[in-house]
Design a protein that fits this description.
Radius of gyration: 23 Å
CATH topology of the largest domain: Rossmann fold
CATH class of the largest domain: Alpha Beta
Low-confidence stretches: none
Distance between the termini: 35 Å
Shape: globular
Helix content: 40-55%
Structural class: alpha/beta
Strand content: 15-25%
Number of strands: 14
Largest sheet: 7 strands, parallel
Strand order of the largest sheet: 3-2-1-4-5-6-7
Number of helices: 20
Number of domains: 2
């Protein structure tokens, strides 16, 4: 079976090399991996032990970051490596992870896996959330290198729990310990005979709580918001932005300002968004030449600021619920404000929980969005009541990182 799997990976690599001619993102995916082996040889200091963390993309990196930072404090003489599968993670974080080196994860091809592990020689491998790669898992087990999954979550519809999923079920036997987000994941794994697990929670709660505590002021947001009610639409797609016209045409929103941080910040996307919003909008990149205090809408045409911008919001709308899948609702929720989202939130546990508790309100169409914004704009008490649900939920669920570090410590010492 491994032979067929390896053959499939090789074939996929061939197809990706062809597609790279037509897709800039796939081109980054392919070309970035071509330099990994050579770069790692220069990075690796053989006399030092190394801890390796692998994440799929940017969201999973943020999820693993509390664990990484705690390990860096506890093991300051180790080297640290963070690998990414996706360009949307690596291209944002390359060279910017404090105290750690970053690289693309070579494709899960047996020869590349062996070369990669021969180079980095990790003391432990930490995979975040969903990442399961058969050749990596088998080779780590063969070399007796502890492998843990952190903030992992499993669902009934995954291949591991299907009658045809024997191969992938056996791969899970390579994991030294599973640190799971919820009890349902534990029940599913126990149902296929896996007992080396703990329900530790989701490290994203630790991450967003730390961001709230470290919140620093943003001068442009101080100027833009002033004393106005601030609505932040974060990680938006065109389907989310289509909710805005009825709200912006309302007559009773004089005290409302709007920040839009679209998921895609390429020039074509930003220019189209700016045209649609008209003269009432200004761009972050042009803020020095604009009168922010007089602007109604601020378009954030860069990345890396949204988590701090949420700290200025009175109300947040999180994008993706009409299109690709909901983005991170914990980032605004930690500031104790109400959160709105589109209808496609199933499969995101924290969103499901907060919808059930009442901290997140689901929006189905533009008039509903307008009514929700005006309700919170005109009722500070309602805003505080709903926002407290979100903050309390996060406060009650943080602490996963501490539980995970305790387990890792026993594997390293």
């Amino acid at each position: 079976m491994f032979f067929l799997y390896d053959l499939a990976v090789r074939f996929s690599a061939f197809i990706l090399r062809i597609l790279a001619f037509f897709s800039p993102k796939i081109n980054l995916f392919v070309k970035g991996r071509q330099h990994t082996a050579g770069i790692l040889k220069n990075f690796r200091e053989p006399e030092k032990k190394l801890i390796w963390m692998h994440t799929a993309s940017l969201g999973e990196f943020e999820q693993g970051l509390p664990v990484l930072e705690s390990l860096q404090q506890e093991y300051p003489h180790y080297q640290f490596l963070v690998s990414f599968f996706s360009p949307s993670g690596y291209e944002v974080k390359k060279g910017k992870v404090k105290g750690a080196y970053t690289c693309y994860l070579p494709l899960d091809q047996q020869s590349k896996v062996k070369q990669f592990l021969d180079t980095i020689k990790p003391e432990i491998a930490i995979f975040v959330k969903y990442e399961v790669w058969p050749n990596y898992f088998r080779e780590l087990q063969h070399r007796q290198i502890p492998l843990i999954l952190v903030s992992a979550i499993f669902r009934e519809n995954q291949i591991y729990f299907k009658w045809y999923g024997y191969f992938m079920r056996k791969i899970l036997d390579s994991v030294s310990h599973f640190y799971l987000q919820d009890k349902r994941s534990a029940e599913l794994l126990q149902g296929i005979g896996i007992q080396n697990l703990s329900v530790s929670g989701d490290t994203r709660f630790d991450r967003v709580y730390k961001i709230r505590k470290q919140h620093t002021s943003l001068d442009f947001m101080e100027r833009f918001k002033g004393n106005r009610f601030c609505l932040v639409m974060g990680s938006s797609w065109p389907e989310d932005e289509a909710l805005l016209p009825p709200l912006l045409e309302a007559s009773d929103i004089e005290n409302l300002c709007l920040v839009i941080a679209p998921h895609k910040t390429d020039s074509k996307t930003i220019e189209k968004l700016h045209r649609n919003l008209g003269a009432q909008a200004v761009r972050y990149s042009q803020r020095e030449d604009m009168d922010l205090e007089a602007a109604r809408i601020l378009i954030v045409d860069t990345i890396g600021l949204l988590t701090k911008i949420y700290g200025y919001a009175d109300l947040a709308y999180v994008g993706g619920g009409f299109a690709t899948g909901l983005h991170n609702t914990l980032e605004p929720a930690v500031y104790g404000i109400p959160v709105l989202c589109g209808p496609q939130y199933e499969g995101f546990k924290e969103a499901e929980d907060l919808v059930r508790l009442g901290g997140i309100r689901v929006i189905g169409h533009a008039s509903e969005f307008k009514d929700a914004v005006l309700e919170f704009l005109n009722s500070p008490a309602k805003k505080e009541e709903i926002g407290s649900i979100n903050l309390n939920y996060i406060t009650e669920n943080k602490g996963a990182g501490i539980r995970i570090i305790g387990g890792i410590r026993t594997l390293l010492n």
